[in-house]
Amino acid sequence: MSGVEKAFAAARAEGRGVLVGYLPAGYPSVDGAIDAIRAMVDAGVDVVEVGAPYSDPVMDGPTIQAAAQAALDRGVRTADVLRTVEAVAATGTPTLVMSYWNLVERYGVDRFAGDLASAGGAGLITPDLLPDEAGEWLSASDAHDLDRVFLVSPSSTDARLAMTTAHCRGFVYATSVMGVTGARSATSNLAPALVERLRAVTDVPVGVGLGVSNGVQAAEVAEFADAVIVGSALVRRLLDAETAADGVRAVAALAADLAAGMRGQA
Question: CATH number of the domain at 3-8+17-179+188-262, out of 1.20.1290.10, 3.90.550.10, 3.40.910.10, 3.20.20.70?
Answer without folding.
Answer: 3.20.20.70
